[in-house]
Amino acid sequence: MSEGNDSTTTSSAITIEDVQNLVKKKDEIEEQIKVYYDVLEDQKGVGMTGPLVDAEGFPRGDIDVYQVRNARHNVACLQNDHKEIMQQIEEALYRLHAYEREKREKDETQAKAETVEQDRPLPHPFAKVDAVTPGSPASMSGLQVGDEIFEFGTVNSLNFQNLQNIASVVQHSEGKPLSIAVLRSGKKVHLGLTPQRWSGRGLLGCNILPLQR
């Protein structure tokens, strides 16, 4: 189950800032390791492996044995931390690249879909909006004067006969959102319009004229 949870956040959770923060931690660990190595170097260059006892087996008197042991211990711990942070950086970079690749493929797919949509012939509108009253349901939906309607709820260019078709849909859809599709400046625009009572006449607040077929 835990692997499943990780997979849902792998692509979306990682950012370049996350990677930069991990690199910053790595740099801090390396700086700390350097400090302790300097301590060991100051102790007669004893390093990580130099003897702490003299030839007779007694603690060396020319170095601070406790300080050396403490520095060595801290270096060992920090090296483990360094190894872990390097693995985290490697994983984060992989996840970041996977996310970017996924996003790029998604963008390309979307761009292709938009191209296909643009290449399709424009639908034939059957009605045109010639008036929209400010503050009306039509106005609130984003409908504009000059919009040419090719879908109005269940009415489309194939089954439209006259404006009574639209009036019937409006009467049966009071308080319910209708999907409207129009041509505006040569582009398709999809709107949601809810016929409802308002301060003006009717349920829409716009005037629609049929187009010559």
Overall mean pLDDT stands at 88
Poorly predicted runs are 1-11
Number of strands: 6
Ends distance? 60 Å
Largest sheet: 6 strands, antiparallel
Q: What portion of residues belong to β-strands? A: 15-25%
| Percent range of helical residues | 40-55%
Kindly name the structural category.
alpha+beta
How does the overall form come out from the CA principal axes?
Answer: rod-shaped
Number of helices: 5
**Secondary-structure element series:** HHHEHEEHEEE
- Rg for CA atoms: 36 Å
Domain PDZ: 109-186
Family: Belongs to the proteasome subunit p27 family.
Keywords: Chaperone, Coiled coil, Proteasome
Subunit structure: Interacts with PSMC3. Part of a transient complex (modulator) containing PSMD9, PSMC6 and PSMC3 formed during the assembly of the 26S proteasome.
Structural description of this entry:
- Interacts with PSMC3. Part of a transient complex (modulator) containing PSMD9, PSMC6 and PSMC3 formed during the assembly of the 26S proteasome.
- Belongs to the proteasome subunit p27 family.
- This is 26S proteasome non-ATPase regulatory subunit 9.
- Residues 109-186 form the PDZ domain.
- This protein has 213 residues and is an alpha+beta fold.
- It is 51% helix and 15% strand.
- The protein has helices at residues 2-13, 16-42, 65-119, 137-141, 163-171; strands spanning 127-132, 148-152, 155-156, 178-184, 187-193, 206-210.
- A hairpin with a 2-residue loop joins strand 4 (178-184) and strand 5 (187-193).
